[in-house]
Amino acid sequence: MAAAAEPRPARGMANHGIAQVEVDGSGIPSLFTVPPSIVDLLETSSSVLQRDTVEECLPFLNGDEHAGKCNQHGIPRLDKQRHVKFLQKQLGKLPPQMTAADPSRPWFFYWCLAALTLLGEDVTAYSKRLVETVRPIQNESGGFGGGFGQQSHLATTYATVLALMLVGGEGAYDVIDRRAMWKWLCSLKQADGGFQMVVGGEEDVRGAYCASVIISLLGIPLELSPDSPAFVAGHKDLFSGLGEWVGRCQTYEGGVAAIPGIEAHGAYAFCALGCLSILDSPHRSIPKYMNVPQLIAWLSSRQYSPEGGFSGRTNKLVDGCYSHWVGGCWPLIQAALSGPSSSEARSADQQDAYSGSLFSRNGLIRYILCCCQDQTLRGGLRDKPSKYSDAYHTCYVLSGLSSAQHSWTLRASRPSGSTGGADEWDAMPYVEDEQIFNEDDRIGTTHPVYVIPKHKVEAAWEHYASKTGF
């Protein structure tokens, strides 16, 4: 049951001459300045939290909390230098209370380096320090642990590999023991086609994505080791049965769960689409294994108004990190619908999909720049106005901002049936709608599948392709 909400001004509206339709002279659509016009009559703890979140965000969205700092669209500037200083600090010596985060150190490397790159910083200077730091956490059995003496894990291995690709150079590329990595990946490959995150541990869509990224970036041979659990079950290569396993993770809602049969989650949707886009070109692999209309419906439902940001699950609150996890799904969905731009002929549906946007880019940009920036001396980005900034949100909020500011096109696809992810992608500034942010606040781009810059991906491919064997 739902009903039209009683007209009520958002907090701070009366003092600033803000009408229900738009902010005077600013051109801010009322969609982003007033509470939702339709509310659920059944009040629950979730609906109360949602209402509180809207009331918390509205003063930021309508300019109250950024008085004198906004452009004509009510959007504050992206404080790049303050965010750069925040990230550089995270790569330095951390306080004693961060000891508990020791198993997550590879993630700090990746989050900070990726975010700095998006902000236009040169991170190659970190190469020597990073190599010296990660060498001791690489295990002889293959892969990287979170810290010295810790068991190898696909998540920390993924983060370490991406961090090394970001800084680049022979030292960073060659510190990885690719033969041991291959052997370890074979031990994680399961009889049902999926991957465990750690030997004897959980199997989920994260494993499918992390493993496929590592295999593709490092040029790992696909042939399975005979002692792999998957080889004994009849699989012959690392990608065998993986698409089918990922497809089974799509839920009745249309989203994607960590494993078959549980709740859909935005981060797992991205992992599924990223994995499938490595197995084959997205216009072939995604429709093959996913019900795309249902997935689009679920992803579209994740964007809320007036906030403009994305939630990660049904009936959950917006969170800045889903600017990437859900926002990053759209370029891959767009490519799945439209196919490569080099195609000589397109269907009417593909032509329609090729133009326009599948989500409100300006709504997401407004949420990020208004609500997610920590404009105190601390800097960085956060999930909502009341939260503290951290490296995780800074990285993924900036990644989401990049996706909203740019349009990715699948220019040319690899030959049918080939694996590895070597499609040709192009990014251009998105110009379909009126630009609501200052051009100086545009940031760099990140590959829609690998979440590091495109030229970093290509440099890794070139390096490992030049190797003979391991």
Automatic annotation (TrEMBL):
Q: Which domain of life is it from?
A: Eukaryota
Protein known as: Uncharacterized protein
Q: Origin organism of this chain?
A: Zarea fungicola
| Source species taxonomy | Eukaryota, Fungi, Dikarya, Ascomycota, Pezizomycotina
